């Protein structure tokens, strides 16, 4: 029974790490492409993707 609890705990930890990493991936990709995460892009900026899992825009 303890082995099953240990395996379950390991699986939960791996799933939580995957969720956390995917939440940062689009924001980090925007910054790596010299972009900024904002709600709205300013006049001379163009929309280049999304940030924060689609809640913001990547403006360049």
- Gross morphology is rod-shaped
CATH fold title of the domain at 25-60: Antimicrobial Peptide, Beta-defensin 2, Chain A
Q: What structural category arises from helix and sheet content?
A: alpha+beta
Largest beta sheet, briefly? 3 strands, antiparallel
* Average residue-wise pLDDT: 81
Rg, Cα atoms, Å: 17 Å
Distance between the termini: 54 Å
Provide the CATH top-level class of the domain at 25-60: Alpha Beta
The neighbouring-strand order within the major sheet is 1-3-2
> How many strands?
3
Report the uncertain regions.
none
Q: Helical proportion? A: 40-55%
Count the DSSP helices: 1
- Helices and strands, in order, run as HEEE
CATH architecture of the domain at 25-60: Roll
Query: How much beta, percentage-wise?
Result: 15-25%
Main location: cytoplasm
Protein name: Beta-defensin-like domain-containing protein
GO cellular component, one term: extracellular space
Keywords: Antibiotic, Antimicrobial, Defensin, Disulfide bond, Secreted, Signal
Layout: helices, strands, pairs:
Blueprint: H1 2-32, E1 36-38, E2 47-51, E3 56-59
Antiparallel strand pairs: 1-3, 2-3
Describe the structure.
- By secondary structure, this protein is of the alpha+beta class.
- It has a domain at 25-60: Antimicrobial Peptide, Beta-defensin 2, Chain A (Roll), CATH 3.10.360.
- The protein has one helix and three strands.
- The protein has one helix at residues 2-32; strands spanning 36-38, 47-51, 56-59.
- The chain has a three-stranded antiparallel beta sheet, covered by helices on one side.
- A hairpin with a 4-residue loop joins strand 2 and strand 3.
- It is rod-shaped, with a radius of gyration of 17 Å.
- The N and C termini lie far apart (54 Å).
- The model has no long low-confidence stretch (mean pLDDT 81).
């Amino acid at each position: 029974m303890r082995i099953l609890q240990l395996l379950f705990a390991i699986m939960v930890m791996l799933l939580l790490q995957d969720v956390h990493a995917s939440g940062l991936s689009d924001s980090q990709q925007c910054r790596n492409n010299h972009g900024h995460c904002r709600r709205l892009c300013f006049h001379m900026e163009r929309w280049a993707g999304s940030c924060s899992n689609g809640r913001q825009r990547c403006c360049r």
